[in-house]
């Protein structure tokens, strides 16, 4: 497990309206290859600005994946940053794009 930025609870405490997007290892080709059926990437976006404010990775290679969220937060990236990404296939990293798509419909 590896996390950076705000959790949903912290966003609520700070009275920040937020949107969450999730992508599951079980739905990802690389996740199926590594056999991780329980892993998940959760992205927390500030609703008003669409900026990423939290990234939570649970599962195989979580400590390597979280850096994508860390960089995106540091550079002020938004949900659109992930939508515009073209990740390699099959990789666990492509789940960032699908988590962003999950969030996109909630803005």
Tell me the strand percentage band.
15-25%
Low-confidence stretches: none
Q: What is the helical fraction, as a range of percent?
A: 25-40%
What's the average pLDDT?
Answer: 97
The order of strands across the largest sheet is 1-4-3-2
* Structural category: alpha+beta
Count of discrete alpha- or pi-helical segments spanning 4 or more residues:
5
> What kind of sheet is the major sheet?
4 strands, antiparallel
Instruction: Tell me how many strands there are.
Output: 4
General form:
globular
Distance N to C terminus: 27 Å
Give the assembly state of these chains.
Answer: single chain
Order of helices and strands: EHEHEEHHH
Supply Rg: 13 Å
Can you characterise this structure?
The chain has helices at residues 8-13, 29-34, 62-74, 79-84, 95-104; strands spanning 2-5, 18-24, 40-46, 52-58. By secondary structure, it is α+β, with helices and mostly antiparallel strands. A four-stranded antiparallel beta sheet has the order 1-4-3-2. The longest helix has 13 residues, at 62-74.
């Amino acid at each position: 497990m590896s996390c950076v930025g705000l959790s949903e609870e912290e966003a609520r405490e700070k009275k920040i309206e937020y949107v969450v997007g999730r992508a599951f290892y079980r739905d990802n080709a690389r996740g199926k290859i590594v056999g991780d059926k329980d892993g998940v990437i959760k992205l927390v976006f500030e609703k008003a600005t669409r900026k990423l404010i939290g990234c939570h990775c649970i599962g195989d290679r979580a400590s390597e994946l979280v850096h994508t969220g860390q960089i995106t937060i540091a550079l002020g990236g938004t949900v659109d940053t992930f939508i515009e990404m073209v990740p390699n296939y099959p990789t666990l990293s492509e789940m960032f794009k699908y988590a962003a798509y999950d969030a996109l419909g909630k803005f």
